[in-house]
Amino acid sequence: MIKPNYVLVLDANKKPLIPCKPSRAKKLLNSGKAAVMRRFPFTIILKKECYPSKSNLKLKIDPGSQTTGIALVQNNQVVWVAELNHRGGLIKKKLEARRASRRLRRSRLRYRQPRFLNRTRPNGWLPPSLMHRVLTTMTWVKRLIKFAPVSSIAVELVRFDNQKLETPEISGVEYQQGELLGYEVREYLLQKWGRKCTYCSKENVPLQIEHIVPKAKNGSNRVSNLCLACQGCNQKKGTQSIEQFLVKKPSLLKTILSQAKKPLRDAHAVNATRWRLFDELKKTGLPVTTGTGGETKFNRQKFGLEKTHFYDAACVGQVENLEILSNQPLIITGKGHGGRQKAALNKYGYPIRYNPLKPIKGWQSGDMAVDDQGCLGRVNPRSLSNSFNFTVLGQKAKSIHVNKLRRVHQKDGYTYGQ
């Protein structure tokens, strides 16, 4: 059963009040006692001043390398959930393209003096693709604190023991000199292989750790040689090499071998940003508590919840009881605020077209609008046409005349969906 998010409420002085049910918000709007303050997250503002009651609203965060889960919990009741999709990979790709373009340009400037030692990085510096995860998470933390009476924050300190994953044989003093993080290899494999059997793609069945190169043929215990398999596939494979076992499935063999070599990029990203995020959360002035990944998983299984980012967020920390009043998350995807280039360049660094000045006919790329059929989507305006690109989440972009679009949310660097 789909349960929509509760509605965030402000009084006439823009002081946050306890979120209310959607039905209650609809009555307030229809009676004229409130107005829509913001579409994403959906917030109403009352037309009278109220005395806010004491709140026990907790903001819970499950940080991830690609998606961060967010939940608001009031007295063990989950009233608002969201999933924040980061764009760190896109930032890295654009920075690499910019670096290549600058290097090509500088190679043509023979008179330019080399400069290598005049740039220093401050203490605690993080690459932009990693710092983006911290900044976007903090943006939504501050936004929710502004629109809801948050009394405390709970965050999961996701921990991956990279040293143990890469060198499982390490032990003793040599291991103690590394970073003792102790996150189970099995949990990492569950995330890497999508929580399903590697060979038959079965889900929601008991999975066993499987050696791609069998131990009988000198296969190692390194994480790059491990995958997940159901009992039937594990027994059927036995001590065969993966090439023998999948001789009739060459495409699956190629996929598994490429996935096995997948680097620990996500684990490194989480490890590099977790303490920076914790320090930034403390600057809000609210009490901040932490939880472990194992504790989150135990709570989720105890309450019989499926594996999702927002459910993980709701299960962060010590949870004695949990009632799900909302299970339809707000999908938030980082898109940025657009570039400032006057012209688009080809691969040789020469301009191929000039970008128009913004806004275009009163619209900007990233504005959210509703078409004549009531569908919510993202708008990309065109300077030479009255038909704009309109993209609904999960669908291909289509061309719609500007007169058939009604703007409901101005661009803020994110796109939204349910």
Helical residues, percent: 25-40%
> What's the helix count?
12
- Strand count, sense and closure of the main sheet? 8 strands, mixed
Output the structural class. Answer: alpha+beta
Sheet-strand content, in percent, reads 15-25%
- Poorly predicted runs of 5 or more residues: 161-166, 169-183
CATH superfamily of the largest domain: ATPase, nucleotide binding domain
Question: Can you walk me through this structure?
Answer:
The chain is 30% helix and 24% strand. It is α+β, with helices and mostly antiparallel strands and 418 residues long. It folds into three domains: 1-118 and 127-160 and 264-334, ATPase, nucleotide binding domain (Nucleotidyltransferase, domain 5), CATH 3.30.420; 181-260, DNA Binding (I), subunit A (Orthogonal Bundle), CATH 1.10.30; 338-412, SH3 type barrels (Roll). The strands form five sheets. Strands 5, 6, 7, 8, 11, 12, 13 and 21 form an eight-stranded mixed β-sheet that branches. A hairpin with a 5-residue loop joins strand 1 (7-10) and strand 2. It is globular, with a radius of gyration of 25 Å. The protein starts with 6 loop residues before the first strand and ends with a strand.
Provide a concise account of the structure shown.
By secondary structure, this protein is an alpha+beta fold. 30% of the residues lie in helices and 24% in strands. It is globular and about 75 Å long.
